[in-house]
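# nightly structure sweep
# worker-07 picked up a monomer target from the shared queue
# config: single-sequence mode, recycle default, output format = structure tokens
# input follows
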Amino acid sequence: MEAQKLARHKIEKVLEGGQSPDRDAQFQRIAELKAQYAAAGNPVFSIDTKAKEHLGQLFRKGRVWTQRAFQSFDHDFPSWATGVIIPHGIYDIARNRGHLNIGLSHDTSQFACDSFRWYWNRIGQQCYPDATSILMLCDAGGSNAAAHYIFKEDLQDLVNDIGIPIRVAHYPSYCSKYNPIERRFFPHVTRACQGMLFDSVDTVVRLMRKASTIPGLRSTVNVIRRVYQVGRQVADNFKATMAIGFDDLLPRWNFVAAPQ
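# output follows
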């Protein structure tokens, strides 16, 4: 084995599935926006939905210190689960704080906007009382998909409620791993929960609240029990009446929703 220079390796996730032609230009634009918002004292939030997980006596990877091993079903059939959790994350880059709103229904644009609405009204606004605008960094797909006007419609409702403009900057296709929340918050949530049974929503909340780091990351968690409808369509007159301004530079990825 040594003579043949063999060793045990795990598969490396390094091959790109594709590359966006806007990658470099949009990365530069995001860096400029982050600097502008930081200089103005306005908040920058990285948002995304963490992978959904099932509730119940289902196996989860990892090891923990216990007197005896937890017991799970010998198969991981989703039909044996007692429910599903959808953790929507909001990471405050300047304050190094993460928040999770755990949904129990579906990962829709309405859920994503409700998640931020809950966070801003109870935490964000108190941390940034003088904010004049919010910068939201998002992936290109999912519940906040750049190409879907239903997200923009729900975002418009959100800014109308909170009364402050939200600027959205999407990471281009194939670049979601560069969204800060993917490196600075979600891995620590995973670590806090590894090897533990998600036997109830209360257990999930308790475990995810423990996500922290020595440099200072802290986490808060809330549960959103609203049931969300899938397959919603944008209102017929939304495009004609929306108060959303698309940037001249890379408008596909950059726009501002202003209160009406």
